[in-house]
Design a protein that fits this description.
single chain; about 550 residues; six-stranded mixed beta sheet; five-stranded mixed beta sheet; about 35% helix
């Protein structure tokens, strides 16, 4: 176990810190904040980190690493590819969790320092603060800055930057110069580019520029919130279906209303009334707690909350946006509340994915590098499997009878998706369990699915299917264990809605649960067969994966 401040950190906390650290490192590499790493971004940070450490950087080797990591051949790395590349490297080096945490934190710190040295354009703090200032300038909330909004901000900005930056940053000439497409308004990209161009002309350190911008943001925020304590009344919508189905991204959007046809499935969401949101809320859970009370939901329920943000470039559909932020200062809760005070805001919230919060089960981290071999060595018996399509898609199938009897050395496999649409959308799976001394924490095994051959001549093979992830739980000790696995593409819904111009979240659930399953581990009797594999089809255990065939009505 890792030790921090004299206290031992438990494996679950370590796993969470590894994941959080890798996400922070990815963002540090992502110079343009696009959510993907181009080859230039990847090599730029890698090269600077090596040079900072006094090492010669081999550009050809760097390109090869990028190519190997780019599993879908897109020319860019998404977070999952970046994560897999780093974890594989750490596994090859034999690092413990504690060593991984330390190394990732060190690399992130160095990457952010290198970005700051590259100038204000690449400084992560400056970029984020400018985005916040743009939102505060945008009084109407339409995602664009009009001349009126620009001039209205002049006095505040001039008072704050007069000693540090060029006051011309926000004067009339600057507005005209920034409006590169000549449409009379500024979008976010034009505002950022104009700001970076001005910053690059002043002889100030990036950290000094950041402090000035933070002062501007603080004053603008104080002016915005003066005398106001809550948003205008917001209409709360819930799913019409009593038990909404779970569907993968590729199957969930076809019947949803779009910007072109808003009548499709228009009654899938039901308005439940209006509520004003206090502006002092700081986290997504603050908002969720109020909505649970308003909707008379039990306090132990988890919910997902979506809102409709300002349209990009002032045109097109309003982006469906997931409310985020577990801690104050994180996520988009404050930004959403500020937006909902603006005249052009769409005053709607959508509540979905209602599910029970576990009271006794704990989210368990995946078995880390040093634990995998010992757990695999304990697998001496057969395997019992539950696959996600049988259990979750559509109405889903029933679970095995409780308790599920297993023998020592046998394994329970829960197979879940990794991606959908050939890597376009990714899933997250979390296992919640008790008694991990009885049934092990999950071990990840990626399963590459073979493409099916087409029947038509000359067509070759179908596109490569998306890989699956098998969560393997090993029976270690006699006793009982209860577990379930949540499968989610909740954080991909924004992307899906944007690509298909949807005007609301999809009516289906984007989080589903396999379980709970009660496992009773008993002493092994007789000879165990490690090669045996049985899948639950909703009615019985079978050597074939998939749901049981339904008997046709009317036939005897």
């Amino acid at each position: 176990q890792a030790h921090f401040g004299g206290f031992a950190m438990d494996p679950q906390a370590e796993e969470a810190q590894v994941e959080a650290g890798l996400e922070a490192l990815f963002k540090a590499y992502d110079l343009d904040e696009s959510g993907e790493l181009s080859r230039d971004e990847f090599l730029a940070i890698e090269m600077r980190l090596h040079l900072e450490d006094g090492e010669v950087y081999n550009m050809e080797s760097g390109r090869a690493k990028m190519t190997l990591s780019d599993r879908d051949g897109s020319g860019c790395l998404d977070y999952e590819e970046f994560r897999a590349r780093f974890l594989q490297t750490y596994q090859e080096q034999g690092l413990s969790r504690a060593e991984v945490i330390e190394h990732v934190a060190d690399q992130t710190k160095k990457a952010l320092l290198e970005r700051a040295k590259m100038g204000p354009r690449y400084h992560a703090g400056i970029r984020q603060t400018l985005r916040n200032i743009f939102s505060l300038f945008d009084v109407s909330g339409d995602g664009l800055l009009s001349p009126e909004e620009w001039i209205a901000a002049q006095k505040t900005v001039a008072a704050e930057v007069s000693d540090d930056l060029d006051e011309g940053w926000v004067d009339e000439a600057a507005f005209a110069a920034a409006d590169t497409n000549g449409d009379g308004v500024l979008d976010m990209a034009e505002f950022l580019e104009a700001s970076f161009a001005m910053f690059e002309g002043v002889k100030k350190r990036a950290d000094s520029i950041l402090q000035t911008l933070l002062r501007v943001e603080k004053v603008l925020n104080q002016q915005r919130m003066a005398g106001r304590k809550e948003t205008s009344p917001v209409t709360i919508f819930v799913q019409k279906a009593e038990k909404p189905e779970f569907q993968p991204p590729s199957m969930s959007w076809q019947d949803e209303p779009t910007d072109e046809d808003g009548s499709k499935n228009a009654d899938a969401w039901i308005p439940m009334g209006e509520v004003a949101l206090p502006l002092n809320f700081q986290t997504a859970e603050d908002v969720a707690a109020l909505l649970r009370l308003f909707l008379k939901l039990p306090s132990e329920m988890w919910v997902s909350v979506f809102f409709l943000g300002p349209p990009k470039d002032g045109t097109g559909p309003r982006p469906v946006t997931l409310l985020r932020g577990e801690q104050p200062g994180q996520g988009n809760t404050t930004a959403m509340l500020q937006y909902l005070t603006k005249p052009s805001a769409e005053l709607k919230l959508f509540v979905k994915n209602t599910r029970k919060r576990p009271s006794k089960l704990i989210r368990q981290p995946r078995a880390f590098l040093e634990e995998r071999e010992s757990l695999f060595a304990a697998r001496v018996g057969g395997a019992w499997g539950l696959d996600w399509e049988t259990q979750l898609v559509g109405d889903g199938e029933s679970l095995p009878p409780r308790p599920m009897i297993m023998q020592l050395g046998e394994t329970l496999i829960i197979e879940v998706p990794q991606t959908d649409e050939h890597g376009e959308y990714r899933y997250v799976a979390n296992a919640y369990m008790d008694n991990i001394e009885v049934l092990s924490k999950p071990v990840n095994e990626v399963i590459e699915v073979k493409a099916k051959k087409t029947k038509k001549k000359g067509k070759g093979s179908a596109p490569e299917p998306d890989p699956l992830l098998q969560l393997t739980f090993v029976a270690l000790k006699e006793g009982q264990c209860i577990l379930f696995v949540d499968v989610s593409w909740e954080d991909q819904e924004e992307k899906l809605c944007g690509e298909h111009s949807l005007t609301a979240p999809v009516a289906e659930n984007t989080i589903a649960r396999i379980g709970p399953i009660q496992v009773d581990v008993q002493k092994a009797t007789g000879k165990l067969d490690k090669s045996a594999m049985q899948w639950w089809n909703g009615e019985k255990w079978s050597n074939k994966k998939g749901p049981a065939k339904k008997k046709k009505k009317g036939k005897k």
